Amino acid sequence: MLLFDPLDGSSNTDNNMPLGAIFSVLKYGRTDRSPTEADLIRPGTEQVAAGYLLYGSSTMLVYTVGQGVYGFTLDPDIGEYLLSHERMRIPEKGKVYAANEGNYNKWPDGIRKYMDSLKVTDKATGRPYSARYCGCLVADVHRLLLGGGIYLYPGEVDKPEGKLRLLYEANPLAFVIEQAGGKASTGTTRILDVEAKKLHQRVSLIIGSRLDVEQAEAYVQGKA
Predict the structure, then answer these.
(1) Residue 91 within any structural domain of the chain
(2) 128 and 68 both lie in a single domain
C-alpha cells in the first residue's frame, strides 16, 4: 500500500525553487479484499519502505527499506537513476537550522527558547547556527541529511497538533532519517511511535541530527 505527498513545496512552483515528493510503503497481508482507507492508518514502525524524490538542480531518489539509506541521481542522458550516495549517514550534530520563523510568536515557550539558543555566539558549541529554509520539506531535510542540523515545524499554541501530515510526510521522512542515524520527534514522542488515528492526521515535527533533536527535546520538555 502506498501513501504519498505528490508535490511537496508546491508554493515554490512559480518561483523555480526546489520541489519534492514523499512516499511511504506499507505491507497489506489480506487476499480476500482490496485495502480500505482504514488499512492505511498504521503506525510508522510498520513501514516497509519510504523515501522521497527531490527536484532541484538535479533529480534525486532517496529511499530506505530498513537496511540503510541510498541515494540515486537521475542521468537525463540515459533516463536512469544511478547510485550516487551509498549508505547515507547524517552527522550527529550540525550547524544549520530550518524553520518558518514567521510563526515564532505562535510557538510554545520551549521551542522559542530553543530557537533563541541557536543564535547565541558560543564557539565551544558551534553557535550561532545558520538559518536555511526554502519552504520545501524534502529539500530542507535533504540538506540536513547531507550536512547535519535540525528542521522544526512545531505545533502552535492554539494549534498544538502542528501542520505536517503524519502518515505521508513525517513518518516516511522519520524512517529515512532514523536509518541514516538521526532522530525525528514531536518534541516529546518519537515520530514513528505516534499513534495513527486518521488519514490526514497532523503532527509537530522536529527532525535531523541526533544531538540537535535531543537538545530541542530538552527545551520542549523543560529540561534545558
Answers:
(1) no
(2) no
d(CA 89, CA 123): 25
Give the number of other CB atoms < 10 A from CB of residue 224. 14
* Burial of residue 148, with CB atoms counted within 10 A of its CB: 0-12 exposed, 13-18 middle, 19 or more buried: buried
Distance CA 71, CA 73 (A): 7
Number of structural domains in the chain: 2
Gap between the Cα atoms of 220 and 202, Å rounded: 18
From CA 75, how far away is CA 58, in angstroms rounded? 9
Closest CA to 184 of 209, 156, 162, 202: 209
Nearest to 62 by CA among 8, 135, 132: 8
What cell was used for 29? Answer: 497481508
Q: DSSP secondary structure string, 204-215? A: -EEEE-HHHHHH
* H runs (alpha helix) in the chain: 37-40, 109-117, 137-147, 171-179, 210-220
pTM over cut 0.85: yes
Domain encompassing residue 76: 2-85
Co-location of 129 and 79 in the same domain: no
Residue 30 has pLDDT above 90, yes or no: no
Number of other residues whose CB lies within 10 A of the CB of residue 45: 11
pLDDT of 207 above 90 = yes
